[in-house]
Amino acid sequence: AKNVVRWLLDSGMKIEAHLDRQYSGDHGELVFGKFLVADEFSGMRIPKRSRTIGKLINIQVLDKQELRRSIVDLFSKNWVKIDEDTAERVLKSALSRTKPDPRRKSKRIGCVANGTKIVAAAILLPKRGGAVKALLSTVTEDAKTIKLMIEEICLMICHWGSRKIYFLHPLLDGAVVDALKESQFQMEDFLKAPYRPGEDVGIFSRFC
């Protein structure tokens, strides 16, 4: 491991983050990064959000084509751009009723809706060792709705027998960052512009 770290540092990589007990109760993770082109802050693009109230909904009851379009639209406008093919692959895995298997790169989705209109969603990616990575996107800034979604996701993930959940989220998105902190998530570190130029992302984690 020391030789690998030395090689990465010699190649120009820098240690961006250390994640506690990421793969087991005894092993953390170092995250290395390196810019291939210069990164410049261009201002975060958060569309105007509503104050819509929502509640958790079972995605099995939703129209699958509408669900796919909603996921593409929600994430592409508010977080990180995904296309129809990517959304289709995520949904194919997420609609399974079995416990997710990280060896198969299983994915799950949690959704909050007002009626049948999705106002917030999280893509969940179980990892080896018991951690679950989460990406959340929302068109509502209603604090209770966002916090409800976070708490319900945590309950679901802990029910799987997972040890840890960590959200990657833009640091300047105050509505979601505040909700994560109110739900007892701690910011372990941050990554410099991993998804969009000039947009740093915090790593917020909580143990089951």
Question: How would you sum up this structure, described in words?
Answer:
- It contains five helices and nine strands.
- The chain is an alpha+beta fold and 208 residues long.
- Strands 3-4-5-6-7-9-8 form a seven-stranded mixed β-sheet, with helices on both faces. It has a two-stranded antiparallel sheet with strand order 1-2.
- A hairpin with a 2-residue loop joins strand 4 (108-114) and strand 5.
- Helix 2 (64-78) packs across helix 3 (84-94) and helix 4 packs across helix 5.
- The longest helix is centred in the last third of the chain and has 17 residues, at 143-159.
- It starts with a helix and ends with a strand.
Largest sheet: 7 strands, mixed
Overall pLDDT: 89
N-to-C CA distance:
28 Å
Q: How many individual β-strands?
A: 9
Q: What is the count of helical runs?
A: 5
Q: Output the radius of gyration.
A: 17 Å
How do the SSEs run, as a string of H and E? HEEEHHEEEHEHEE
